Amino acid sequence: MTIKKLQNVYVKATDIRASRHFYEAVLGLVPKFADGERWVQYDAGGANFALASDGEYPEGAAGAVAVFEVTDLDTRIERLADAGIAIAASADMGSHGRTVTLVDPAGQYLQLFQRNA
């Protein structure tokens, strides 16, 4: 069971418009996907970087959140439970896929993501 790839890293943007201006006009990133004022995703040289609104950012997290893409989310959830690691949140993202949010031993939030077939 290996991680397929680092799918995304995202940060909380309390003012999406100001953050978009910074990342697009100042840094030159080009949006590849935007969900209104909720989420904006950029291609950062082959990796994904995104801005998340308050509603898309895990409660209790601080700083960047790494999202690891996996092909076997249900197996991973069982493995986390066996290791005594609690799932902080889960989300069904419709046609995009599913995520679970967990916290590592150092208190860093991360997510596992499985894309829908």
From TrEMBL:
The lineage of its organism: Bacteria, Pseudomonadati, Pseudomonadota, Alphaproteobacteria, Hyphomicrobiales. The keyword Lyase applies. The keyword Lipid metabolism does not apply. GO terms for molecular function: lyase activity. Keywords: Lyase. Pfam families: Glyoxalase (PF00903). This is Enzyme related to lactoylglutathione lyase. Residues 5-115 form the VOC domain.
